[in-house]
Amino acid sequence: MIIPRTIRRFQDRRTHRNGPWAALFEAYGGDEVVSLDCETTSLDVNRAEILSIGAVRIQGTKVKTSDRLDLRLKPPQSLSGESIKVHKIRASDLSDGIEIEEAMDLLLNFIGNRPILGYYVNYDIRVIDKFLRPVYGFGLPNKAIELSHVYHDIIKWKHVGGDIDLRFDTIASKLDIPIIQRHTALGDAITVALMYVRLKHGQAPVSTH
Fold it and tell me: What pTM was computed for the model?
């Protein structure tokens, strides 16, 4: 039986509220958002293994590019020629990669209980949860913000009928945001962060170093 994420989050919060990761389950009261992206071996969550993780914090109109996470993991045996064509990551590029357990620990400490932003963010969360839950006993409890939904909800009032193109490259073009290192985890995370700031604040994002 597939348990809905909301029910699992409630169960996880009840189980871990007094544990070492209790802070993750507290309501977030700050003003930061974390833009997150993963590069994986497959778009099928059940088969996907994580190759790299990129994340950057956003505070108001500032994309804090110096406050970022850029992780490469050890190459999985499932790394194939087909997946390499998409993300251009070869096994040799991951020769100094870290173990998945270390990556999960670094990720949890970087995100904390901040909301997680992404493009098709639920896919990234589901893949992370697949590796997080066996080790920690819980999935990411954070609020998720889907960039394409934010874009759709903001611009739909400017369109009368017709479909809205929600492709990554189209959204970036419409918002006049440069695409940074496409199909790299950190590049996509920063690009999504810049698009989010433009959508929420209607002005050119400020990048801090």
Answer: 0.86
